[in-house]
Amino acid sequence: MRASELTLVRNLPLFHEVADPHFEYLTAAALLQRFPPHVVLIDEGALPDFLHIVVEGSVELFAAHDGRETTIDIIRPVTTFILAAVIRDEVYLKSARTLTEALILMLPAEKVREVFSKDAAFARAVVNELALRYRGVVRALKNEKLRSSAERLANWILKSDEQQGRAGHVTFACDKRTLASQLGMTPENLSRNLSLLSKHGIKSGSREIVIENRSALSAFAQPTSLIDG
Amino acid sequence: MRASELTLVRNLPLFHEVADPHFEYLTAAALLQRFPPHVVLIDEGALPDFLHIVVEGSVELFAAHDGRETTIDIIRPVTTFILAAVIRDEVYLKSARTLTEALILMLPAEKVREVFSKDAAFARAVVNELALRYRGVVRALKNEKLRSSAERLANWILKSDEQQGRAGHVTFACDKRTLASQLGMTPENLSRNLSLLSKHGIKSGSREIVIENRSALSAFAQPTSLIDG
DNA sequence: AGACTCGCTTGATTTTTATCAAGCGCCGAT
DNA sequence: ATCGGCGCTTGATAAAAATCAAGCGAGTCT
């Protein structure tokens, strides 16, 4: 593994305070692997062998049941995913697959649990990470149950614009099919919702969205830190 | 506070391994309070002052936004709730109110965080608790997004029957309005779904449900440990 | 260049769920 | 026992979202 990637991981809040020997112990047995797009990394129902960390690319967390499928989250660098199953040594509740080509660091689950029980600083960092993720899922649940699909889209546009520097034009990082799934709607309804939102301050092109009237969009979206973070 | 309640709390996985002086420190400043039904204990958006523990009665976690409201979970004794906000010292994302009369133990949030940073055993117990809760919310999200309202009800019946000893008859712990909210449907649809399920092995009375054909109900419900735990 | 592919859009229809509006029945109070 | 009240049920309607079915259009391949 290259030093640059190790540094990236070392700088994650999760590993920043871990004692040097413990960090070396974890990474000595780590695997750094490059995957093509659309490869399944984790199958729900399986027991965790590794703690996964996205170093490059993006990963979709999803779940399937009885023929239906739903996207739960999209993970971008540099982030761990599905920590809870690793810590509790219980089956994964979600599956994971690459969306793009991706570079994934995998730390042996057993060693993560070992360091967790020896290294108090790591244990505290795990708590913070888990608490953060917990809050993320609660937000997702509220977003789903308290908003219509058009409102979810409107808030996604506002949030993406923030992340892209409030420039007033949002570019799609993935195809619309994936975006629709992420927002909990069909591609058809994403299309309809985009044209609906043209009545609320946006203009949507094929590759980007332009925010022409932020306050109108905001009035429709009703963003709140209690859902949108 | 009475010794019997202290013992109950002490026996929670969260507090079982905490060093004696730390446990005493936490509980010395604790408040044990009895609340009438339908009292709001926590307002989403507020900063946490206490870690709450339900000792008796039941508490509903819910969230509201833009005139809509949704039940997120029902908490029964003996359990802590909304630990993540306390640990991170960030605003609550959910509100809480008593459903029945309830006895609530409240530990000062500041002291919880203090013991958390001093007591490694407590930190590890917090991780386990948070990981468990995290998985609970993921299950709730999957239940919501991968199932119809009738399927949620069918699985609720099966699960309640398990918890009541597989006797084949489930009694309602709360009124149907509350149950409907918990299952993410209107009271009208709960009623319709109950009559729908009479085609799938149940007989529903006003105070209880009888499972007449468990395998038929199960075939309709498609229960799975990846959602139902 | 022309035709093809594939992703996106648009329209029509169905399913699911919520909302509105009566009606029914159990239970307590008088 | 009878009268009200209230929670539950039932029916009719409406809204939201999924599904089915074409059509369009920006790229690519030959």
Structural account:
The structure is a homodimer of 229-residue chains. By secondary structure, chain A is α+β, with helices and mostly antiparallel strands. Chain A folds into 2 domains: 3-145, Sandwich (Jelly Rolls), CATH 2.60.120.10; 148-228, Winged helix-like DNA-binding domain superfamily/Winged helix DNA-binding domain (Arc Repressor Mutant, subunit A), CATH 1.10.10. Chain A is 48% helix and 24% strand. Chain A contains 11 helices and 11 strands. Chain A has helices at 3-10, 13-16, 20-28, 83-88, 109-118, 120-146, 149-163, 176-182, 187-197, 214-221, 225-228, and strands at residues 31-35, 40-42, 50-56, 59-65, 68-75, 79-81, 95-98, 102-108, 169-171, 202-204, 208-211. Chain A has a 4-stranded antiparallel beta sheet with strand order 1-8-3-6. In chain A, strands 2-7-4-5 form a 4-stranded antiparallel beta sheet, with no helix packed on it. In chain A, strands 9-11-10 form a 3-stranded antiparallel beta sheet. The radius of gyration of chain A is 19 Å and the shape is elongated. The mean pLDDT of chain A is 94. The first copy, chain A, binds a DNA duplex (30 and 30 nucleotides) through residues 148-150, 175-177, 185-192, 194-195, 206.
Topology:
2 copies of one chain form a homodimer.
Chain A: H1 3-10, H2 13-16, H3 20-28, E1 31-35, E2 40-42, E3 50-56, E4 59-65, E5 68-75, E6 79-81, H4 83-88, E7 95-98, E8 102-108, H5 109-118, H6 120-146, H7 149-163, E9 169-171, H8 176-182, H9 187-197, E10 202-204, E11 208-211, H10 214-221, H11 225-228
Antiparallel strand pairs in A: 1-8, 2-7, 3-6, 3-8, 4-5, 4-7, 9-11, 10-11
Chain A binds a DNA duplex (30 and 30 nucleotides) through residues 148-150, 175-177, 185-192, 194-195, 206.
